[in-house]
Amino acid sequence: MLSPLPPFPILLIYKKKKKRIKIKKRIMSAALATPLARQIAGKSILVTGGASGLGAATSALFASHGAHVTILDLDAAVGEAFARSLNDAAAARPGATGLPAVQFVKTDVRDPEQVAVAIAAAEELQRANQEAFLEGAHSTSTDAAAVAAHPPYYEHVFGCINCAGLGPAAKVLGRKGPMELSFFQNIIEVNLIGTFNVTRLAAASMAQNAAQNPSVKSADAYEVGADTTPYFDNGVIVNTSSIAAFDGQIGQAAYSASKGGITSLTLPLARELAAHRIRVNTICPGVARTPLLEKFGAKVVEALSANVPYPRRLLEPREYAEMALFLVQHRYMNGETIRMDGALRMAPK
Q: Which InterPro entries match (predicted)?
């Protein structure tokens, strides 16, 4: 059982000139019922590859917990429609500001400029929702300064879930000769370099959240063991690798190399970014039930499921999303690589 976080109740009570001022419940209505949920509610979350498959399930789950989600993907028609559907659901929740809580930004994760634009859009969405929230809070409070001194939102990105990637297979020595170098380069660029590109720029945004943290004003103030405000991380990054990083099959040389690189990034990133109170973890899914896989038909899905020891089925995207949510919520999870594969160990082919 997780240890509860320090109380951060919906009904906040402040002292001023020996008078107790009660801020009405709706001031913090964006915060959900449990302390762990408050680690998510009102925070800015990036999800790459967030309009389909594992990423879409992640976008939906984080949005349902009150996060402000920015979806980075390539298919604008699909992404914009998906964002609208999530906004329709978010608008009906308590604490909604009346502004969109989810947005889509067409982004190639390999492109530094496009990623920077997406992060700027995420920060703008966050600021707009924060201002609308505080305006609503001030209208019910006799102490606007007290509310402003305890901002319910950070102004910058808080979470980054990297799901964007591709995984075509090809042998190093095939019937037509050696693998084209461009094939290998493309997979490395999208999966590994794309993940790193988003991670580095998201981390730069997260580090700026220290200004909103009342106990840690800068990275210089951080000391190992000095965890005086357990519910204040400056950010959390969750990357997506694969069991192919460990059990690569014939034809997966490029894909396994890209995912192995993501896995190997986890610990050095977590160690370095600890100085900024940013945690980093990696999920290694097994075979997941995605729309792309289901196009191969029920027989293929059944055959793949039969290889999984238990549970004898494919990983559901919602389960991946729940693991990502857990890693963002649980503050002692840092520098970890987690396999989600039902004890599956892939055969050579």
A: NAD(P)-bd_dom_sf, Sc_DH/Rdtase_CS, SDR_fam
